[in-house]
Every structure is written in structure tokens, then in C-alpha cells.
Amino acid sequence: MISDHEILEEATRLAKEGLSVTLPVKGNSMLPFIIGGKESVILQKPDHPKVGDVVLAWVENCRYVVHRIIKIDGHDVVLMGDGNIIGTEHCKIDDICAIATHVVSADGKRHDLYSKWRMRATRLWWYLRPIRRYILAIYRRL
């Protein structure tokens, strides 16, 4: 049986070779923009990662995450899941394995992660951090 780690390493290798990879997402750390267990992300080669990009990264030398870049300082990158309240992860720019370009819903529809409305919603969501906990609690109950 292939482990999750081996699958992620292979997805990373394929993306870095220039192939597009569709990867199912687990967990709730990217709510409400990516629904773990129901949606997948399309990953591509990480040419020029920038703040706001959703990336697959090898963080803190121990695990892979699909989270959003919130800060780049030289070669140091800070990531945070949209569904996280305060937790961040850290990696080097070279530890970014792929950039997510689209979300694929359960019915197979592709949605651009960087459309105008999604970027506006992402920006608004960032400013709602102090009350995200309450919004997410309501969202999870629906």
C-alpha cells in the first residue's frame, strides 16, 4: 500500500516536471475556499510563488500542507490555512512543491482559485480573522 507521503512526493515530482496534477484534499484547514474530503486541487509547477497563492509545501522539515502564502521575506515563507484561526507554518521558498491553480468540486467542475471574486473574498476573509472562529462554527453546522 502506498502512503500519503509517497503520493505527495510523486505529485510534487510530476508538478515540478511541468505536469498538471489533481490531488484530493483532506482536512478543514482551507475552509471555506477548499472543502477537504469533497474537493481536489489542481497543482502545477511553482514558477514564481507570491503572497496569496495556495501552495503545496513541505513545512518545518516534517510534513506537507496545502495552505496560502501570507508572507515572503527573502527565502523564508509563512503559510496559513484559510480555515485556521492563528496557526501558521514556515518553510523556505525552495520547499514550495506546487501551486494550486483550481479547485475541483465533487461534481467535477473546475473553479479558478484566483478569479476576481475569489481574490476579493480571500482578502475579506483575511480581515475577518478575529471572528473567523464564529463564522466557521456556523459554516460547519450547515
What does this structure look like?
By secondary structure, this protein is of the alpha+beta class. Helix content is 25%, strand content 33%. Strands 1, 2, 3, 4, 5, 6, 7 and 8 form an eight-stranded antiparallel beta sheet that branches. The mean pLDDT is 94.
Brief summary of the model shown:
With 142 residues, the protein is an alpha+beta fold. 25% of the residues lie in helices and 33% in strands. Strands 1, 2, 3, 4, 5, 6, 7 and 8 form an 8-stranded antiparallel beta sheet that branches.
- Helical content (DSSP H or I, runs of 4+): 10-25%
Could you give the count of β-strands? 8
Multimerization status = single chain
Structural class, by secondary structure, is alpha+beta
Beta-strand content bin: 25-35%
What's the number of helices? Answer: 3
Mean pLDDT: 94
Q: What characterizes the major β-sheet?
A: 8 strands, antiparallel
Radius of gyration: 15 Å
H-E string: HEEEEEEEEHH
Question: What is the strand and helix layout of this fold?
Answer:
Layout: H1 4-16, E1 21-24, E2 40-44, E3 54-59, E4 63-73, E5 76-80, E6 89-92, E7 96-104, E8 110-112, H2 116-127, H3 132-141
Antiparallel strand pairs: 1-2, 2-7, 3-4, 3-7, 4-5, 5-6, 7-8
Descriptive labels:
8 strands; 142 residues; 3 helices; alpha+beta; 25% helix; 8-stranded antiparallel β-sheet
